[in-house]
Amino acid sequence: MSTLLVKHAQVLVTMDDDRREIAEGGMYIEDGFVRRVGATEDLAGSADEVLDLSGHLVLPGFINTHHHFYQTLTRAVPGAQNAGLFDWLRTLYPIWARMTAEHIEVSTKLALAELALSGCTTAFDHLYLFPNDSRLDDEIEAAHTIGLRLHASRGSMSLGESDGGLPPDSVVETHAAILADTQRLIETHHDPAPGSMTQVVVAPCSPFSVTTDIMKESAELARAMGATMHTHLAETKDEEEFCISTYGRRPVELMEDLDWMGDDVWFAQSVFINDAEIGRMATAQTGVAHCPSSNMRLASGIAPVRKYLSAGVPTGLGVDGSASNDGSHLLGEARMAMLLARLDAAPNQSGGDLMTARTAIEIATRGGANVLRRPDLGSLEEGKAADFIAIDLSRLEYAGALHDPVAAAMFAAPVNVDFNYVGGKPVVAHGQLVTTNMEPLIDQHNRLAAQLLD
Length: 454
Ligand code: ZN
Known about the structure:
Layout: E1 3-13, E2 21-30, E3 33-39, E4 49-52, E5 56-60, E6 62-64, H1 85-96, H2 101-117, E7 120-125, H3 136-146, E8 149-156, H4 175-189, E9 198-204, H5 212-225, E10 229-233, H6 237-247, H7 251-257, E11 265-269, H8 275-284, E12 287-290, H9 292-297, H10 305-311, E13 315-317, H11 330-345, H12 357-371, E14 388-392, H13 405-411, E15 419-422, E16 425-429, E17 432-433, H14 438-453
Parallel strand pairs: 1-4, 1-5, 6-7, 7-8, 8-9, 10-11, 11-12, 12-13
Antiparallel strand pairs: 1-2, 2-3, 5-14, 14-15, 15-16, 16-17
Helix pairs in contact: 2-3, 2-14, 4-5, 11-12, 12-13
Bound molecules: zinc ion (ZN).
């Protein structure tokens, strides 16, 4: 048995049911799970490892519920910098079609390194095209190297241009190939146990890039095998109109028709969802991955996050793919969610209706765990996985904000974390990634990115 004692945190935010914030806090951890949380003086005195976090804010690890790691290779691409979603995709699809297994491996490591340094301990990735020799297995292996928990998706595209879809025919796959590979990947890699490091998610890309048949068949397969399901929904006005003109249904109605509602499903973006649809998502407990930076970058719109929260729709946070953000800074994304929700509230400002720093942190932690169906994650309390981050409060960015260190994490400029532990093991220590050497990784990534655009 391995044990870890965390002690003397200036404030330890539990995000438990009572939202306790413990001054001079600590945790006793056994084999990757929290056994006790409380004031340092009340915890056992010894352990295999002792981590003194005097002067630090400790938070549950943040959870990212939507990303496309491979897009770190196509940040700030000229021609896709100032376009809305559909034109942006048309510019990028042919570039992405050149990816190989090496691109998947290296972009996964780079995205997860950036996520880890910005406070993420669990990440979902939506990979939905597998050109050349690329496979999801390479992403899963790369994630093990970095040490974050991964929910990897076997995504898909099956509706090419010649059939009325958006992607070029060269990047779409047949139904048989998609379903067979999805089943293989779940059988090989999916671990549903508490403390799981790897889960496989079934994730057709979006209504405008897959057939309705593959949506139905994917849902059947996922439910038969106990996997969760994910897709993009109602990201833009164009997409809302596509659903209505092509299927005669609003986005959520279409998902109901296709058996894509339930507590095992979450959607990305969901900007153009009306009040009635929000009610149906709340009833079904179908979740949302809110991606505020991407929604601003692509000029998509403001997602009705305040309504999702008040209706009880499971709501998590996503940085989204790095071609539409173009960063994987999860703590910065939580801040962005707080600020954008305030702008949305502006027409009826009352002061009481503005998203608080603690709500933003809650979406990034408990909210994300709920969306990914991970009752073992999202808070620091007895029995939960020991996934936590720590931020040194004596930094420049927080000077003058220490009246409320928890709020400082959201109101002050976004910072990288000083410690990031997953299952009681260090991924970041003293501000440095400990699992991988960054310099060669950045060099290799830049070389591959240049190759793709050449
Ligand atoms: Zn996306």
